[in-house]
Design a protein that fits this description.
223 residues, eleven-stranded mixed beta sheet, 14% helix, 14 strands
Length: 223
């Protein structure tokens, strides 16, 4: 049994909760993987803030059209009905509440829903970028992340210590160990790896964890 989910498996699990026809923005990097795992019979409409709506999966290597890229400068394909628009119009979509879901990575997420995902401190990137708009414009904000940092420290914390991207914006966190909702400024466990004990999960979570009567098994296919 795996001791934790891979990044692809975390992305797969997050994709299962996206409604058919939802307008979705995926953060640069790891969250872009979510687009690969659309459940059968469901198709999200993906938005990228540099001005494309309804793009498809990445092209085969060697078939890239570098006029067609997402916000992470990665090559994309277009689905039927895709549209192009000005950067300002793209952010009007975001700020106007027209996106159903934003799925982002994170450095820290707090039990009150605060998100810190753009800077690790003074030597980090110089500005927050479009994530600040996304977390307060999208109707639902989810985070995908390893449960702990590379040196084993919790990413799910009582209060963020890194510069904030948004305040009280996250409602669900998909990690390598669990699926956790943020409700009433508390972390509420919804699913965990079958072989992981509650005590072991609490030991790597930097805030109190509410344990409801029913908890699902976090199971993902081999990817």
């Amino acid at each position: 049994m795996n001791t934790k989910l891979s990044n692809a498996q975390i992305a797969w699990r997050a994709a299962q909760d996206i409604e058919d026809g939802a307008y979705v923005n995926l953060g640069i990097g790891f969250p872009e993987m979510v687009a690969k795992f659309q459940p059968p019979g469901k198709q999200a409409i993906f938005h990228t803030e540099n001005g494309v709506l309804n793009f498809g999966e990445a092209p085969a290597e060697g078939e890239e059209d570098w006029d067609l890229i997402n916000a992470g400068k990665k090559a994309i394909t277009l689905r039927p009905g895709a549209a192009f628009f000005h950067h300002a119009d793209s952010f009007a979509m975001v700020r106007g509440g027209h996106l159903d879901v934003a799925i982002l990575g994170t450095y820290e997420v707090a039990e009150n829903g605060d998100l810190a995902n753009w800077s690790t401190g003074p030597k980090g990137v110089p500005a927050v970028g479009g994530a600040m708009d996304l977390v307060h414009g999208a109707k639902r904000v989810a985070v995908i992340t390893d449960h702990v940092t590379k040196d084993g420290k919790p990413k799910l914390v009582k209060r963020c210590t890194l510069p904030l991207t948004g305040v009280g914006c996250v409602t669900r966190v998909y990690t390598s160990l669990a699926v956790i909702d943020i409700e009433d400024q508390r972390f509420v466990l919804r699913e965990k790896l079958p072989g992981l004990s509650i005590d072991d999960l609490r030991a790597v979570t930097g805030a109190d964890l509410v344990i409801p009567n029913q908890i699902g098994d976090l199971v993902a296919p081999e990817l």
